[in-house]
Design brief:
7-stranded mixed sheet; 393 residues; 43% helix; 2 domains; Rossmann fold; alpha/beta
Length: 393
């Protein structure tokens, strides 16, 4: 009898090994370009989830998951499209975590993901226009749309007693979408936008843009730009000329580079970035430890985006994007057993047993409408040269 049991165990092990594979997932982010200081931690978040799943040994009959990085540049649609094509045709990825900035995300979705039937989950593409893009059920995002951020910005400024603002935005899908959303919400609430002016990234001098903003005036300057690019240039010009000394900064501007480049010059300024004070956020910080900085923008969203792809595969019993795409909303939302960071192995076990899960993750994931996060925001104030969290909305 013992010999029969051993033989059966050996056959089971051989069968599992036969089904196990190395599943590749793309991680396409702007490793160069205007948010390059943010992307290392974002990539680390996604890859942490992949390692957690692999180490559990419970994914797809013992399969492993390997990340394959590609550079979206954040701003060059042609380069991002070519990089995404390589992920699919050369590297053979079964899903894509990314892209990041809205313009390149839309380009990759339309030109690469949809024609190739590839699932994409972006942690940070926030343009409202992406909600309307034809995606064949392949596109999701763990960050909320800027239609929501515009309202949150308005509420925060109104609560501070701000009645008029000058507004500048980076001249792309992200900047224009956020600027329009904010202006509509702010004016509907009784505020005044004295000027709404685009700026181009990559310039050495923003004196003419700052002069126009200063001429229009306002209680403060809203800069819907990028922390490593034109947005920082606008702030420097405004501070050096005395045009403005207070700023309100949305998600693309929030990063440690602000503290390094401006220090106490930004004291009193405010901003917001997607974030939550949910138990999952604390758990994420706990399980990551000092492996990387979880306080930066979109690290939790990146972990969650990668986790959702892998959990959907497990739920579908397939790594084929056209098979598992229909499971993403199911694993992300109630009903089911709540799943937090560090519990991906448990989630895989439950799914294999046919048990429903409700993936809460690091960012209190709840996908609505066309597969995007309902979203909450962490409010930030600059004090003593540091970004401090003052609340959540």
């Amino acid at each position: 009898m013992k010999k029969l049991l051993l033989a059966g165990a050996a056959i089971t092990a051989m069968t599992a090994a036969a089904h196990a594979e190395d599943v590749k997932l793309g991680v396409i982010l702007g490793f160069t370009g205007p948010i390059e200081s943010l992307t290392p931690a974002m990539a680390a978040g996604a890859e942490f989830a992949m390692k957690e799943v692999t180490d559990s040994g419970k994914f797809m009959d013992g399969s492993s998951v390997t990340p394959v990085r590609a550079d979206s540049t954040c701003v060059d649609a042609g380069a991002a499209t070519a990089a995404a094509e390589r992920l699919i045709t050369s590297d053979g990825v079964k899903g894509i975590m990314g892209a990041d900035c809205s313009g390149v995300t839309g380009a990759v979705l339309t030109n690469v993901a949809v024609p190739n039937g590839m699932v994409m989950i972006s942690p940070s593409a926030t343009s409202p226009g992406l909600s309307e893009t034809e995606d064949n059920g392949l596109f999701f995002r763990t960050s909320p749309s800027d239609a929501r951020q515009g309202v949150v910005m308005t509420e925060a400024l109104m609560d501070m007693g701000v009645k008029s603002v000058a507004l500048t935005y980076t001249n792309n899908d992200y900047g224009k979408g956020l600027a329009d959303s904010f202006q509509q919400a702010f004016e509907a609430a009784g505020g005044s936008v004295t000027i709404s002016a685009a700026h181009e990234d990559g310039k050495a001098d923003y004196s003419s843009e700052v002069a126009a903003l200063a001429s229009a005036g306002g209680d403060l300057l809203v800069v819907a730009g990028y922390v490593d690019q034109g947005g920082a240039g606008i702030i420097r010009g405004a501070l050096d000329t005395g045009a403005f000394d207070k700023f309100h900064l949305p998600d693309g501007m929030i990063g440690s580079a602000l503290e390094e480049n401006f220090g106490t010059e930004l004291d009193g300024s405010t901003g917001q970035v997607p974030g939550t004070d949910s138990p999952g956020a604390a758990k994420f910080a706990e399980v990551v430890g000092d492996a990387f900085d979880v306080s930066g923008p979109y690290t939790g969203e990146s972990y969650d985006a990668a986790a959702l792809i892998m959990l959907a595969m497990q739920a579908a019993g397939s790594t084929d994007p056209n098979e598992y795409k229909g499971k993403i909303m199911e694993v992300a939302n109630a009903p089911g057993e709540p799943i937090y960071p560090g519990e991906l192995g448990k989630a895989l076990e439950l799914l294999a047993a046919g048990t429903d899960i409700d993936y809460v993750g690091a960012t209190a994931v709840e996908l609505i409408g066309p597969g995007e996060a309902s979203g909450s925001y962490r409010e930030i104030k600059f004090e003593d040269g540091k970004m401090t969290t003052v609340g959540y909305r």
